[in-house]
Structure formats: C-alpha cells, structure tokens
Amino acid sequence: MIGDLGAKDASELAGWVASRQVSPGELLDAALAAVEARNPALNAVVQLQEGVARKAIADGLPRGPFRGVPFLLKDLGCEAVDFPGHNGSRLLANTRYSRDSAIYERIRATGVVTFGRTTSPEGGIGAATEAAVYGGPTRNPWNTDHTPGGSSGGSGAAVAAGIVAMAHGSDGGGSVRIPAASCGLFGFKPTRARLPDGPFAGEGWAGMAIDGFLTRSVRDTARMLDACAGPDLGAPYVAPPLATSHADAISRPPRRLRVALCDTSFTGTPIHPEVAEAVRAVGRLLESLGHHVEPGCPVADVPMMMRAWTDIVGVGTALGIRKALQGRPLSPDLVEGVSRGAVAHADRLHPTRYLEAVGEIHAFGRQMAGYFDTGPDILLSATLAEPPARIGRFNHDTEDYVGYRTGPTGIFAYSPFCAVFNASGQPAASLPLAMSQSGLPIGIHLASAFGTDEQLIALCAELELAQPWAARRAPVAV
C-alpha cells in the first residue's frame, strides 16, 4: 500500500492513516528506509530520534490533520525537549532545551511523527546549506553538484528526495522560499507574526524571521498554517485576522487580480534569461486565467532595506555568538568565517545603528504598503535571479560578511527578491512552475499586501491546478 512515498503529499498520507490503510509505524519505517537509502548522497537529515518517534506512536498521536505522517524539524529554532539541536554550528552543537517552543507544540498537535532534524547553515545567514558541524555540504536532489538552498536547505532536500512529504523551515530572508525554488517545492512565508515565536524569542531579526514549511502541495501548507497560526502567550504583536482559513481560501479561486510582472530584479538589474522567461510564461498563464497582468516593479528603497537587513542580522548573529561563547575566544574551530565576520561588523557599528536600521525597515514596509495600496494586488517575479548555485559558491569560509551579503556576486545579487518581503512583513510564496534547460528547478515568486495571506494562497492553489507540478520528481527521489 505504501508504495512510493515520494509521489504523495502529507494530506494523502494522513488520509491513508485515517482510513487504516497504513499505520503510522509503517510510514515511519518507510521514511527511515528512505533516509538510509538517500541521505548519504544528500547530507540533509541529522540527529535521528527513532526512539522518540516510536514512543510518540505508542503513546497515542494527537488526532490532528496530519496524524501519523513522518516529519522533520529544521536544525535551527523550533526548540523541542526531545530534539536537541546543533543549530548549524559547532559552537551550539548538542544544545538541549528546557521546554518546547510554541511552534513545536502546535506542529506536534497536528499528529505528525517527528523523527529528526534537517541541516541548516550556521546562523541561518546563507542561501546555501554547508555547515561544518555536519561534516560536509547538503546537496540538491535534482543535481548533487548544486545547493538545495538555505537556510532551510536540509528540509528542502529531504522533501524533494521523497524522505518526507513535508518538513519544518523558517524564513528570515528567504530561507523557506529559496530552498523551495531550488528543490522544486512549494514554500510560503506568512504575514509577519502569523505564527508564534515564543517563548525562546520575542521576535526573530526585528520581526523579519518567521517559521514555515516545505511541502509538495499548496493544501499541505494551508492545513499546517491553519493548525499553527496565532500568537503565543505574551507575543509583542499579532498579525491581522484572516478573512477565512487558509484551507477554505484554497477551496475556490480568488477574485480576478491585478498582477505586476517584474522580469528583472526589483532595482532593474537583468536576471538569468531562462528565469526571466519563466516569469513571463507565468504572466501569460495568469492572463489566460483572467487576471490582469502588466509590467511593474515596487517603488521602494531596496538598497536601503538591504543595508538595514545586513546590519540587523549582523547584530543578531553577534549577540547569539557572544552569549554562546561564554567568554571563550572567537576561534575558527567554533565559529565559521561568515559568522566571525558578522561579529566584527556588529562591533564596528555605532551603538545607535541597530535602532536606526529597524526604523529603516519599518519605513521600507510603509513604502511597500503604499505601493500595494495604490498598485497591484500581486507582485510576480522570480524567486532567485538564476538557477540553483553550485556547491561551494556560498560557503561560509569568507570573513567578509558584508561582501557575502551585498557584494556584486553575493547573496542579495543571487536572491534579490525574497528578503524584501521579510522586511515589509508581507506574505510571499515560491511556486515550482518552471525548470531550466539543465534540469534544475526555477521558482516563481508571488507576493501580496500585508495581511492578505488567504488571497495569496488561493492564487497559489489556482496556479497549482492550472499547471500541476506533483508528477515532477528529482532524480535522487526516483
């Protein structure tokens, strides 16, 4: 009955469990077998906790929407007592947690069977996943010479390889959407504060970071968001209420929308021609569905936002490292180059710069809100400016943190779209609607006005129905 799990989404697997066609234990067996067979080529799944998973099944799983479905947590955040984490860093290796995070409590209540973690880059500050703590890079199931993206790269690789049907991720500058684009998956970043951050953090990176999920289908993301949404106790702010649930929103098409199509970067820089053509092709698809599409790019100070993002994340990285060092020296055997560079960059900033940068992010959010208020309902672009990068291009060896982020060949040149919506707080998604001539996925990016998550996910579901991607399989998954 189980057959090829790599061809199923989590909703279908949960339906099998509910109808008693398979048991949670059989699904876990299949996932563990897939780890054994496929993970050596990928280095995506780490810190297996089979005993914890077996005990959860034996004790009785919650009767949530994904009861019995195998699941993996990103090894960054999502703190859980039963799942120690390296957090992508030798400095933080084998960190144990005193209690479960709010997001993990809600994930567990869906009935998933969590059995391990997935790799992430140190500090989550990269578009590739090549952390030294895991002994080597994480590789892309479509072509193992290429990266699956970051910082939720291990989750993206595990889902694309058919090890699990969905996995946890988080997104502070594209860290769900970049792996989704790189691995041929669906990735959705909700509106700021739609999901809980506590109790280990009040907010991530001045509110720019938020949890999320890597999935094969829009419906899996919709159902998981519905199960996990809402503030936790003491949250500093909350997202606007939804007009309807995500699951209800995808049950019918959205109204016909005004779509701005940007086939360059948001500052007008050309992108890879195959990627630009993929964006235009989706524009034509949207027109065929009755939406109004015209050229357009946001009117907002993107360079200011990128500088502010870089400073905020640099300070946040330095704070975490200084706390973990506990007086020890900042040495290469504990902390990788980019992170050491982030600490040095933070040390050079004026003490008032952090709050100034937060103010610039807020100003940028207002600029983007103004653009959507008088302009389009949806902004269509690429997710990445080119197909997935080769392994090694974005490793953390360099100590030039600023150049790594904002240099002419840095992360922002490669991924000029995603962080814009972390800064503005708007919902945004990457859809696997295209492939390069070399056989690598190309992600298509859609964003909507602040708080309009249901409109955006409904459009994603309409595009999934119009141009299905479920049958497309990575070579490692076959």
UniProtKB/TrEMBL annotation:
List, for all copies, the residue spans of the domain called Amidase.
26-456
Listed SUPFAM superfamilies: Amidase signature (AS) enzymes
Q: Name one GO molecular function term.
A: catalytic activity
A Pfam family (short name) is Amidase
The record's InterPro entries line, in alphabetical order, gives: Amidase (IPR000120), Amidase_CS (IPR020556), Amidase_dom (IPR023631), AS_sf (IPR036928)
Q: Which domain of life is it from?
A: Bacteria
Q: What's this protein's family per the entry? A: Belongs to the amidase family.
Give the protein name, as stated in the record: Amidase
The scientific name of the source species is Tabrizicola oligotrophica
